[in-house]
Amino acid sequence: MGRWQRPPWGCKNNRIYNNTIYFRSGEGRWAISLKEGSTGCVVRNNILCGGARGGFEFDDTGTLAGLQMDYNLFYSADLGSLVVAREDTNEWITLSQWQAVAGQDAHSFGAAPAAVFVNYPAADFHLKAGSPAIDAGDPAPAYNDPDGTRNDLGAYGGPAAPGPVPKKVTDWLLLLGD
Ligand SMILES: [Ca+2]
């Protein structure tokens, strides 16, 4: 069996929640690629910003079997609205085509990084005030943010999101001295 004729070996039954994946223009491949028999995966509440490519790539080795994708933000710096790819046929498609054909990502949407992040050119991927990613995640309480509000998309949202900024060491010294 040749190198490219091996049996599928992909990742199976992965839970990919609340990640921020970002590539600059001209860089990177698809933010998430599920191929080579990657079945049963659940992908939700993520921010998927491609640079040279887009947000998500799949193939025909069973990727769509058991796949559950929703409440994700899609973007491509260089491909415009073509944020999803089907590798086998080398097709690049829009989010709305993906939603219609695959029945995935019903509540997902597109947005540009400038509208989403505090300062992405400086790698500050906190969500800015008014970001469309705020409270845009899966509304089920199990996905709520630590403050009890609906899930914010990306790495700064969801139950495992970083808490408030810790007090400075000097503050603790002051407390100990009281
Ligand atoms: Ca929230």
Defining traits:
4-stranded parallel β-sheet, alpha/beta, 4-stranded mixed β-sheet, 178 residues
What is the gist of this entry?
With 178 residues, the protein is an alpha/beta fold. It has helices at residues 95-102, 113-116, 169-177; strands at 15-17, 20-22, 32-34, 42-44, 47-50, 56-58, 68-70, 73-76, 84-86, 91-93, 109-110, 117-119, 124-127.
How would you describe this structure to a colleague?
The N and C termini lie far apart (73 Å). This protein has one domain (3-177). A hairpin with a 4-residue loop joins strand 12 and strand 13 (124-127). It is globular and about 50 Å long. It is 12% helix and 23% strand. Residues 166-178 have low confidence and may be disordered. It is an alpha/beta fold and 178 residues long. It has a four-stranded parallel β-sheet, with no helix packed on it. It has a four-stranded mixed β-sheet with strand order 3-6-9-10. Bound molecules: calcium ion. Residues 134-135, 145, 149-150, 152 line the site of calcium ion (CA).
